[in-house]
């Protein structure tokens, strides 16, 4: 089948988006073909990425053939090369991510197969979910057995006390066997990270995430042995297998966390997973509990652990994608419907 049109749009988000997100959050990409089959993708980069898709990358895809995973890889390489002057990372690759995810959805729908099957998966596993947010009592009620605590902001002695209190609360509600992680969002330095590792040692922390900026690969590599047995995780702000090759060479991270909708889509994530296997690292996808992440987990050698950013019981969530898998007793199962098995909520595009 040949591609006849491709368009990106920025949804009409009705819930407040903080920080950098109001105009730079997730985009929707639709690909149409002469076979009458369409595919939908989800990328980052907001209104800027919409312009990248509609004003540049679109024209490179018209009349291109998309009949196999090899075709999608070929198109990925074409778009990456064309966007090098202004890309290689950031908004350009977030835009490419949305296109790539749409192409995989398209192929799955055309072949009447779930994407995880196209990736080599044979069945839809139950994937352990982990809840990111600040309401461990609620997470326990919903059956989660893994929790990630967001912990940035000012540091110092009081921060150590607050971190220990947060870990204590999570353990109290989820139990001693639950996985417990800390997301630092680049707010720590090396000394703080070492002190946190000592302070939190009684709580059996699985990983510290994004302790330093992603540019400091040497600093991350130096920290890794200093905080054991805690694992050092990161990668959500890194793009494509080219950057993860640098991470592998530096030995910067124990756990790689590419975001499928940011790092270059399914195609780039597959390549990153292969690199991680060669480097002896694990892959736990950033926001891996979303439909695309679940299919990648089911079809590749990722760790079977899917993140859901839930916040707390009072937070409301917009349903941009209908029929997305919901957690049952803390576990998620990817859809076995064609493509990713989700429908777009057109009301949020008005």
TrEMBL record:
Q: Per its UniProt record, what Pfam families does this chain match?
A: MR_MLE_C, MR_MLE_N
Extract the SMART domains matched here.
Answer: MR_MLE
Magnesium among keywords: yes
> Which CDD domains does the entry mention?
MR_like (cd03316)
Q: Does the keyword Nuclease apply?
A: no
Q: Which cofactor does it need?
A: Mg(2+)
Q: Which residues form a coiled coil?
A: none
Leader sequence range is none
Output one GO BP term.
amino acid catabolic process
What's a single GO MF annotation on this record? Answer: magnesium ion binding
Q: Identify the keywords attached in UniProt to this record, alphabetized.
A: Magnesium, Metal-binding
Name the UniProt record assigns to this protein: Mandelate racemase/muconate lactonizing enzyme family protein
According to the entry, every stretch annotated as the Mandelate racemase/muconate lactonizing enzyme C-terminal domain falls at 133-230
Source species, domain of life: Bacteria
Gene3D superfamilies, per this entry? Enolase-like C-terminal domain (3.20.20.120), Enolase-like, N-terminal domain (3.30.390.10)
């Amino acid at each position: 089948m040949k591609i006849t049109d491709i368009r990106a749009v920025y949804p009409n988000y009705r819930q407040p988006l903080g920080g950098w997100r109001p105009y730079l959050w997730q985009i929707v990409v639709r690909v149409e073909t002469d076979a009458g089959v369409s595919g939908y993708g989800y990328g980052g980069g907001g209104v800027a990425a919409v312009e990248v898709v509609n004003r540049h990358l679109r024209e490179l895809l018209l009349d291109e053939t998309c009949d196999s995973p090899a075709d999608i890889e070929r198109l990925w390489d074409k778009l990456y090369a064309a966007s090098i002057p202004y890309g290689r990372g950031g908004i350009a690759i977030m835009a490419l991510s949305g296109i790539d995810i749409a192409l995989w959805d398209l192929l799955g729908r055309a072949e009447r197969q779930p994407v995880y099957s196209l990736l080599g998966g044979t069945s839809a596993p139950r994937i352990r979910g982990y809840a990111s947010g600040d309401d461990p009592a609620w997470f326990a009620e919903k059956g989660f057995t893994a929790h990630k605590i967001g912990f940035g902001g000012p540091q110092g002695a009081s921060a150590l006390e607050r971190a220990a209190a947060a870990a204590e609360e999570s353990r109290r509600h989820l139990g001693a066997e639950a996985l417990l992680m800390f997301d630092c969002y680049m707010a720590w330095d090396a000394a703080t990270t070492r002190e946190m590792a000592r302070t939190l040692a009684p709580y059996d922390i699985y990983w510290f995430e994004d302790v330093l900026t992603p540019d400091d690969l040497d600093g991350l590599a130096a920290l890794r042995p200093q905080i054991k047995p805690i694992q050092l995780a990161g990668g959500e702000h890194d793009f494509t297998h080219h950057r993860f090759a640098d991470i592998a060479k530096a030995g910067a991270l124990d756990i790689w966390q590419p975001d499928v909708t940011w790092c270059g889509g399914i195609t780039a994530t597959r390549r990153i997973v292969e690199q991680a296997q060669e480097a002896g690292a694990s892959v736990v996808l950033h926001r891996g509990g979303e439909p695309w992440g679940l299919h990648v987990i089911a079809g590749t050698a990722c760790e079977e652990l899917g993140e859901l950013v839930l916040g707390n019981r009072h937070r409301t969530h917009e349903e941009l994608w209908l029929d997305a898998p919901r957690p049952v007793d803390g576990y998620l199962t990817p859809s076995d419907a064609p493509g990713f098995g989700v429908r777009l909520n057109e009301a949020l595009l008005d």
